[in-house]
Amino acid sequence: MLPLLLGCADPGPPPVVLVALDNVRWDHTSLAGSTDFTPSLREFAALPGSVTFTRTYSAAPFSLASYTSLFTGKDAPHHRVGFATMEVPEGETTLAEALGASGWT
């Protein structure tokens, strides 16, 4: 997954854009210097204020649990999505909710 954050000159919180590529190997992207299969991603990452992460780890071996961990900050055994349930447990705060409480829309 390759999250990217963009800043701007607006007085409010900067925009946040999260780009997560599923089933794509890092070394097969233009960001890693591979053949230019992802030129738009390379251009997006080159924008001022962008940040790319080249060393990330998955919280689980499959997407549903991994994305739930990304958006809740909880380990897969804690939220149990994809194991015991298909829904985020009630009471878990998501990234969207946390950003909203901090002024993002």
Structure notes:
The protein has 105 residues and is mainly alpha-helical. Helix content is 27%, strand content 4%. The longest helix is centred in the middle third of the chain and has 10 residues, at 63-72. It is flat.
Structural class assignment: mainly alpha
Tally of helical runs: 4
The strand count comes to 2
Low-confidence stretches: 1-7
Radius of gyration: 16 Å
Mean pLDDT reading: 83
Summarize this entry quickly.
The protein has 105 residues and is mainly α.
Features:
single chain, mainly alpha, two-stranded antiparallel ribbon, 4 helices, 2 strands, 27% helix, 4% strand
Produce the secondary structure layout:
Layout: E1 4-5, E2 16-17, H1 39-45, H2 63-72, H3 76-79, H4 95-101
Antiparallel strand pairs: 1-2
